[in-house]
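Exercise 7.
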Amino acid sequence: MSVPLRPPALLAAPLLVLALLLTGCASSSTGPAKAPVGAPGQGAAGPESDAASVLRSSPSAEAVPSPAEIPGLGPQTRAEIPEDARQAFVVTGEDEDANRSSAVLYSREDPTEGWVAVAGPWDAHNGMEGWTDYHVAGDLRSPKGVYSLTDAGGRLPDPGALLPYDEHPRFAVDGEGFYGEPLEGSFDYVVAINYNRTEGVTPLDRTRPLGLERGGGIWIHVDHGGPTQGCVSIPEERMEELLRTLDPEMDPVIVMGDAETLGR
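Solution. The predicted structure, written as tokens, is:
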């Protein structure tokens, strides 16, 4: 059987298509074709390119949130908190010369998630003359800084404290405060602030590693309705709650000072 011959024009068409496939879709100029923006080897993708959209939507490109920080504390103060501390009782004074303050207890079960407020804010008092960077005996100011909390005690029986608790009649006190308010019951519950004292002993211990002239006996104790001689005071029911919450396994600290100083 004979096979009909194709016309020459029909034979030329497939050859033209093949030539286009081999050379690519060039423009009318003689230079090489431009690759699409964002193609491999062509530089970074622009903000409107498909490649940039893929990067923005990629989970690996999302910013990882930083652990929550304690509000009001600046980088200098945060750096003073030990890495192993997982409880922080933050006492913030109204200003350097004020004797009123506010207290909040923070905790961090997981350091990667940061701090969480677990109690407070509570009204508090501090030294009659406010705060100081260099406390000395009789200046009526509370020492600024970050101090560990390891020991507790009081005139009343242990309310369920997790810190070692020393019940002793020597915690009894009488007399009047700066505004004529009675001091009786102020030391029914106390937590020793480890400023110029030896850790791991009763708050009644009078050892002063920095010397007697630097003062001592700085405690968290029951508020008597007025400023203190250098301690921090909070209401009695709050003291009981604090004693039942501060956990030696969490290496608790107190962060104390006026708002401006703590914000540095």
